[in-house]
Amino acid sequence: MAAGIIAAEALPADKRRAFRAGLNSGTIQRLPGAFNPLTAKLVQEIGFEGVYVSGAVLAADLGLPDIGLTTLTEVSERGQQIARVTDLPVLLDADTGFGEPMSAARTVTVLEDAGIAGCHFEDQVNPKRCGHLDGKAVVSTGEMVRRIRAAVAARRDPDFVICARTDARALEGLDAAVDRAKAYADAGADLIFTEALQDESEFATFRAAVDTPLLANMTEFGKSELISAGALQEIGYNAVIYPVTTLRLAMFAVEQGLREIAETGTQSALLGQMQHRSRLYDLIGYERYNEFDTSIFNFSIAAHNGSAR
Prior knowledge:
Layout: H1 12-23, E1 29-32, H2 37-46, E2 51-53, H3 55-61, H4 72-85, E3 90-93, H5 101-113, E4 118-122, H6 141-154, E5 161-166, H7 169-172, H8 174-186, E6 191-194, H9 200-209, E7 214-217, H10 229-235, E8 239-242, H11 245-264, H12 277-284, H13 289-292
Parallel strand pairs: 1-8, 2-3, 3-4, 4-5, 5-6, 6-7, 7-8
């Protein structure tokens, strides 16, 4: 069988049930961002509980700023590519729902068909921007409630997790963000994501005020203090995302490598910083394809001897 070789073994419904169960398990669900399917395979191998697909990362990968320029088609396609290769649940950033409340409803159905375990909608106005930048604006609570209600009404799989994100903390204050979170939960949101809380005390205050499962965003270089997963679990948070971390790590290494080649004319000094070919093949599961069709893979991979190839 090809299951587990060319596609994940777990079915989308299984992954959704696992995500929902994880949110209620008392153990914080850690979801590093994956900018491509290969990264998602590594997230699973290392032992995380889920995978996150960031709208900001997808936009950056396309050479675009995070201002709502990406489309539902682009986002759902990348989400499907990532969900296809991992047994972990995938949570996806659906921005503002790509339009009116009816668009948010359609987004849910498209993402369900793509194998995604859940998505979050935010209460920014269009054109949106990164939640840790100044100058953003939010819609009224009533408009966001309509957005969430439409998404919930369109859901066919009851285990698909609908998360509501509020960006109101930076604009209206913490109390207003709490009030919005409660209204979004009343509208049917399963998970609440409050963007740009400043420090551990604010995370704790928010947890004390809201009964719904909560998600924390531990993005680098933003407005939030970086808090460990263990500390967030002690506060009572149910999930944490690291949305841009893997892209930032990769792009830093790529830039350094390209500068080395530009300056020296060779990549020979970089071999020790590269993933070895044999490690890449191991991560892809190259040899397992032999179980499916011996004509696909019929050679041996040399063991990694410490030097990069």
